[in-house]
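Handoff note, outgoing to incoming analyst
You'll be picking up this chain. Sequence as last confirmed:
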Amino acid sequence: MGRVSQAQAQENRRRVVDTASRLFREQGTHVSVADLMKAAGLTHGAFYKQFASKEALVDEVTAHAFDEIARRNAAGLERHDGQRDAAQRALIDAYLSVEHRDNAADGCPVAALAIDVARGPEGREARRTYAEGVADFAAFLAPAEAVGGGEGGIARLCTLVGALVLSRATQGSPLSEEILAAAHAALTEAD
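Most recent structure output, in case you need it:
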């Protein structure tokens, strides 16, 4: 078998990162390299041609996931003609939905990766990227009148993430949807 072209190697890397992003959000970063590569449709050996280690992949996937949030938030602002309150309300509606609860693979990395990042060493790139991503997401959620961008946004983010995690953990019981509804009411009652 011959060498792959540079373009194919880049495509393979993108495929691994996209696949890992979904699997890590759905199952955690403990997914084996063999299972990850099988899901990506590539060989186990191909992993080490793309990444120095699984930790390097976790670092890249964390950055990729938070870049995705930033793109979604920017697109939300654009869809709502720059109206921050409307974009935030649409995000809250989608975030606290049964669809989001049931689809961790495409869901929020803040909720999905929190435990794995917390258990990792403090000096890891993934931890730094995660902290920056959380700060940026909180700034997006801050009320327009908040000075400095983060005021109020952190509380909103904590409410969103906490409700999502609890609703996923109680899925299958009536409490799960009650949690989503209560958090939604708490975040939108002033609207």
